[in-house]
Amino acid sequence: MDAVDDRIEISTSSITDDYDVDWNHKLGTGISGPVRVGTKRSSGEKYAVKVIIDRPKARQEVQMHWKCSRHPHVVKLYQVFCNDLQFPGESESRSRLLLVMELMDGGELFHRISQQNGFTERQAAVVTKQVALAVDHLHSLNIAHRDLKPENLLYHNKSEESPIKLCDFGFAKLDKGDLMTPQFTPYYVSPQVLEAQKRHRKERSSIPVSPYTYDKSCDMWSLGVIIYILLCGYPPFYSDHPTSRRAIDKCMRKKIMTGTYEFPDREWARVSENAKDVVKRLLCVEPGSRMNVESLVQHPWLTEEAPDTPLQSPMYISNKAHREHTAATYEAQLKQMRIPDRPVNLKPIESALNPILIERRLQSRQNTDIGNARSPSPSSQTIPPDPANVKSMRDVIAHCLLPKAQTKKDGDTIMELCEKIDVAIKENPDVEEIPKMLGDLKWNGTTFDEEPKLMEVGKIFKTILQKNINKIR
Ligand code: ATP
């Protein structure tokens, strides 16, 4: 297969010509629905069939999976069909992609650990090594998985020696260098992307540097969390006051953003220093200092035989409620760490429709006119201060749209944003649209139940301010 044009062909013939799909046999369920069992008519062999709505993102998943598929620790993708299917309860058929994959019959990683009698540090290292090799393969192809979590690590069969493999390429992304080209606006660029750009430039000028992108280092952080849980059974970052409403609350967010976690003696006293060293190097807040996958596969914890010390993890992992809580919080963490897919294009400042700039331009013009009519003085050009209610709204917009918010750590940014919104609401009690429109972004009166996109919050305030500027002045 040509490495440059390494794409899988999507067949439009009916999957049922070649496979007998058991629609009732569900191997597991994800956000896109259940994964079912299909039997190849010609050979009687069993496969896993994942069904996803045919959208550009789904097609991207297919191609990403295909590119990564030829590795012993990645679930193999064999064939893809595009068929119109109508499931019970649907009013009409929809075009769907059917991914025929290697059947992973050994279950998910944590499910197996919870069923086992014991789990040792050596076994944890063996699992880690296999996952690290899969990630190494992806990163060597310049692909970030961006959804590394225990549910996406599956055992091939039920035997003790079964290999573990990585699945679900729904968030995988090929880093073509877009994040490193000057396509970003300097307002929103994160320090990590700047770092990536710097390295990219060096690379182009043939200075050897280690491959680096923010997305790839997000995979390494995820690995750090998985290894931590493997070794003790609970996640490194958790809330002191968990609520069911929010997967990540302020307290937990702060811990993540500051990299605050511990190795409590009860579970960690007997864990080797090598294992702890791996965790420390992966759970490093600064992506540029985080260990990359090449270093991980060469770390002594993985190259030498790890001690056969029994771990406490099965005790925690076997608790279903505990496992589900861990999965939910982990999911939320991953969501926050992915870089948005679309790069933001830089707009010339003169054509920007930012409400702050529009207002300033208007005011500056008015002041110039007044200044021209009367005798001009330097002070006639200065913009009068906003009344408190307008200022509080502008503060929110500025917080969302200006670079400071982008370069700060996310947790602090959201906390500050909530404080600013609170002030804006108090200063503008008559503007009912503020809480109403924020409700769509899951604002609960104090904070957001789900982390909002700063751009969206900024746009809401921009719309409200433009609509109400006369009323609130
Ligand atoms: P997510 O919600 O994690 O994004 P998704 O809808 O993209 O999920 P997958 O993660 O690919 O779907 O699969 C969902 C579940 O189905 C997995 O967690 C696993 O339990 C099961 N599964 C997926 N692929 C296979 C396979 N090849 N063999 C057996 N079971 C599988």
Question: How do you describe this structure in short?
Answer:
The chain has 473 residues and is of the alpha+beta class. Helices cover 45% and strands 12% of the residues.
Count of domains: 3
Class derived from helix and strand content: alpha+beta
CATH architecture of the largest domain: Orthogonal Bundle
Strand content: 5-15%
| Order of secondary-structure elements | EHEEEHEEHHEEEEHHHHHHHHHHHHHHH
Number of helices: 19
In CATH, what is the class of the largest domain?
Mainly Alpha
Strand order of the largest sheet: 1-5-6-4-3-2
Describe this structure in words.
- This protein is of the alpha+beta class.
- The protein has three domains: 10-102, Phosphorylase Kinase, domain 1 (2-Layer Sandwich), CATH 3.30.200; 107-334, Transferase(Phosphotransferase), domain 1; 349-472, no CATH class.
- Helices cover 45% and strands 12% of the residues.
- It is built from 19 helices and ten strands.
- The protein has helices spanning 15-18, 56-68, 109-115, 121-140, 191-204, 214-232, 250-258, 265-268, 273-282, 293-297, 300-303, 313-317, 320-337, 355-373, 388-401, 403-407, 410-427, 433-439, 454-472; strands at residues 10-11, 19-30, 33-40, 46-53, 77-85, 94-102, 143-144, 153-155, 164-166, 173-174.
- Strands 1-5-6-4-3-2 form a six-stranded mixed beta sheet.
- A hairpin with an 8-residue loop joins β8 (153-155) and β9.
- α15 packs antiparallel against α17 (410-427).
- It is globular, with a radius of gyration of 26 Å.
- The termini are far apart.
- Residues 177-194, 206-211, 342-348 and 373-383 have low confidence and may be disordered.
- The site of adenosine-5'-triphosphate has 21 residues, from β2, β4 and β6.
- Adenosine-5'-triphosphate (ATP) is lined by residues 27-32, 35, 48, 50, 75, 101-104, 108, 151-152, 154, 167-168, 170.
